[in-house]
Fold:
Amino acid sequence: MSATHMLAERHHHTHGPDCGHPAVIHEDHVDYLHDGHAHREHDGHYDECTTCSCGHCSDSCAACACTDCTCMTCNHAMCSCDNCEPHGCTSCACQDCMCPTCRHAA
Structure:
């Protein structure tokens, strides 16, 4: 069974550190946020990232700010790793993270 994904609209630039769009670590990838979208690189192109599945939100999982979110791909927890500064799991970039809610290191 192959995973389905939605291609993002084409841009006149390549997303990256200097592209002007905020970058957010989301699980095992980086999303670039703009105009209500979250784009992630996938096999040489960009896909739309996941949208929050909780009943009262329609934002991308990378940017969801629901205080009572129940979506499994949104991660609002604070990193509990002993090796990094305290911040949200969605922005944790610790290479040897042991936090159970920071799924980027899994």
User: Anything to note?
Assistant: The two ends are 22 Å apart (CA to CA). The chain has one domain: 1-96.
